[in-house]
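Final report, Chapter 2: Outcomes

The project's central promise was a pipeline that accepts a single protein chain and returns its three-dimensional structure in a standardized token representation, suitable for archiving and comparison. That pipeline is now operational. To close this chapter, we reproduce one record exactly as it appears in the project archive, with the input sequence first and the structure output second.
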Amino acid sequence: QADGTIFRDCNYVLIPEKENKPENLALIAELARALGARHVPQVTSEAHDRFIAYTSGLPHAVAASLMNSESYEKDTGMFIGGSFTDATRVADINGRLWTSLFLSNRDKILAEMDSFQESLCKLRQALEAEDAEALCEFFRGSEKKKGNDTSWQPLIYILGKIHIPWKSGGDFWKIREERYAALLMRRKSPWSLMTM
């Protein structure tokens, strides 16, 4: 079903190439705002990959790890509430697609995993020490950051150069580089890939 407000309050991220003219980028930014985009930042492909490693790669890694944990057993579903459901929503993924995405951004996702592990270790140390003040401070920190984050929106629309897994002949999954492509990520549906 068509939705005329699909881009309302989205983030439309521009990844300029060297050959792009400033006036063309400005035109695309104007178009994005006309579609309803709230933020239209411009970043390098390097910065884009770093942000996506944290905001997408890492959450998918955590979700898949939760589902693959030995703690998950046949009766676990009877004890699942909103927090587990939210944390594992993206665990039902296309394995071949996400293998390609992880390998194409390997170094930055590994770096985010290391950073996440450090944060989790801080929480573990506070819990082991029964340090209520440290635990409370840890949770206050996340609460404050989440409360102050006004840039997050249900949609992220990215224009630039990305890698697209595709099906062709006997070689089932390949990586094809498209100069102009768009990646639309919707909060309650799988990632959808489109070429432009």
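Archive annotation: The beta strands are 11-14, 155-168, 171-186, 192-195.
This record, like all others produced under the grant, will remain available to the consortium after the project formally closes.
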